[in-house]
Amino acid sequence: MSKQALRLRLSKHLKEWVQKSAEQNKRSQNAEVLFWLEKASNRDAGAVAKLIPSVSHSE
């Protein structure tokens, strides 16, 4: 899998939430954001596939 950078602008509230959550889970902030994105991706994979059949979840 190829990794690419993505810059995000977060509100102060979300930035603080990511920071606290990462500390509690002993992960970097990057790993925390990836964890939640993967969780959402897995949950929503079926819904996305119905909307855009050409999107593969394994990409």
Radius of gyration: 14 Å
Summed up, the helix count is 2
Classify the beta-strand content into a percent band: under 5%
Distance between the termini: 8 Å
Cα shape: elongated
Assign the structural class, choosing from mainly alpha, mainly beta, alpha/beta, alpha+beta, or little secondary structure: mainly alpha
In short:
The chain is mainly alpha-helical and 59 residues long. Helices cover 61% and strands 0% of the residues. α1 packs across α2 (29-51).
What do you see in this structure?
- By secondary structure, the chain is mainly alpha-helical.
- Helices cover 61% and strands 0% of the residues.
- Helix 1 packs across helix 2.
- The mean pLDDT is 83.
Task: Outline the secondary-structure elements.
Blueprint: H1 12-24, H2 29-51
Helix pairs in contact: 1-2
Features:
2 helices, mainly alpha, 61% helix, 59 residues
